[in-house]
Write a structure and sequence with these properties.
Blueprint (H helix, E strand, L loop, with lengths): L2 H17 L8 H11 L6 H13 L8 H22 L3 E2 L2 E2 L1 H4 L2 H18 L7 H28 L7 H26 L4 H28 L2 H4 L5 H4 L5 H9 L2 H10 L2 H7 L2 H9 L2 H20 L4 H15 L4
Antiparallel strand pairs: 1-2
Helix pairs in contact: 1-3, 2-6, 3-4, 3-8, 3-17, 4-6, 4-7, 4-8, 7-8, 8-9, 9-16, 16-17
Length: 327
């Protein structure tokens, strides 16, 4: 199975299932923002990943995996709603964020509600106690780990001594964990043995880290219209992203101080963010990050070789899908 082909069909079929995951509409101040979130999806990679892994390892109907896929995507969107509040972001997936369209209080409530509704989706497996007892601890632990990652990300805002290793640890929690648990749940639903489940979790965890490094890079190099959000805001905020910390590690003191000067709010107000982007490009920061991504890619492919032969094509195509993304 080629993931790119699977993904295109899956998104079309999953849309109706996902949007219909919440039926109630009142009170409007609670359900309105929830429906708004469900109707403005992002790339929905996590549910697609879960179902693709299930399909690669099982001959069963994909309908078995759909409740878990909905639950995982709702959890992801719950975290995004709260992230947007904390970051003060106004745009998400090309649309106004819930906090911008309504207010922070409404967004907090909608996020809390969506999390509870997400957990309800896994009730579909209650009649299979052994399976349910494996899935639910994975889901709950993932939410805790993602929250730890978000807490560390917030702590980084007040620190000037954040190291690249710390950033990667934070990313492994905040971004990679929910991706890897999505894949692991797909494997559990397919009845894969513990060794295969753990290997799949490890593969997708590493891919999740690459995914975030790429996302940080695209924040500086992608087309704003394609990304569906304003770009360069991380530089303005001096957010500790991979390019920021990598540049700090590689540039000498004079270069680094110059870079800090050109991302000063007054300089950006007068000159925009292009000078900062060009400075990073001219000092080969982007090129070197691309090379690091390729090395991690090769490591992931080596791990895929340890999976059942009939599933390797699927996982290779999943990796290629992520590696080749432009937005």
């Amino acid at each position: 199975m080629i993931f790119q082909q699977f993904y295109k069909k899956f998104i079309l079929d999953f849309k109706k299932e996902y949007e219909g995951g919440v039926v109630k509409t009142l009170p409007l101040s609670f359900y309105g923002p929830i429906h708004y979130t469900l109707n403005n999806p992002g790339k929905q990679i996590r549910p697609a990943l879960l179902c693709a892994v299930y399909s690669a390892l099982s001959a069963g109907k994909i309908s078995k995996a759909i409740p878990a896929a909905k639950g995982i995507e709702m959890i992801h969107n719950f975290t995004l709603i709260h992230d947007d509040i904390m970051d003060g972001d106004d745009i998400r997936h090309g649309h106004s964020t819930v906090n911008a369209k309504w207010n922070d209080n409404v967004a907090i409530l909608a996020g809390d509600g969506l999390f509870a509704i997400a957990l309800q989706q896994f009730e579909a497996y209650c009649d299979q106690p052994e399976l349910f007892s494996k899935i639910m601890p994975e889901v709950l632990n993932a939410v805790i780990v993602v929250s730890e990652g978000q807490a560390e990300d917030l702590e980084f805002e007040d620190r000037d001594d954040v190291r690249l290793e710390e950033y990667l640890e934070m990313v492994s929690k905040k971004t990679a964990k929910l991706l890897s648990v999505s894949a692991k749940i797909g494997a559990l639903l397919a009845g894969a043995d513990d060794g295969i489940c753990l290997l799949i979790e490890k593969i997708i965890h590493e891919l999740g880290i690459v995914f975030q490094i790429q996302d940080d890079l695209l924040e500086l190099t992608a087309d704003e219209a394609l990304m569906g959000k304003s770009l360069g805001s991380d530089l303005v905020k001096r957010k500790k992203t991979f390019p920021f910390l990598y540049a700090k590690e590689l540039l000498d003191a004079n270069q680094w101080n110059y870079f800090l000067d050109i991302i000063d709010s007054n300089h950006i107000e007068n000159n925009g963010i292009l000078p900062a982007k060009e400075f990073l490009k001219d000092n080969l920061i982007f090129d070197k990050i691309y090379k690091l991504i390729k090395l991690r890619h090769a490591s992931i492919q080596e791990m895929i070789n340890g999976l059942p032969a009939e599933s390797q094509e699927t996982f290779t195509s999943i990796v290629e899908f992520v590696m080749n993304r432009k937005y």
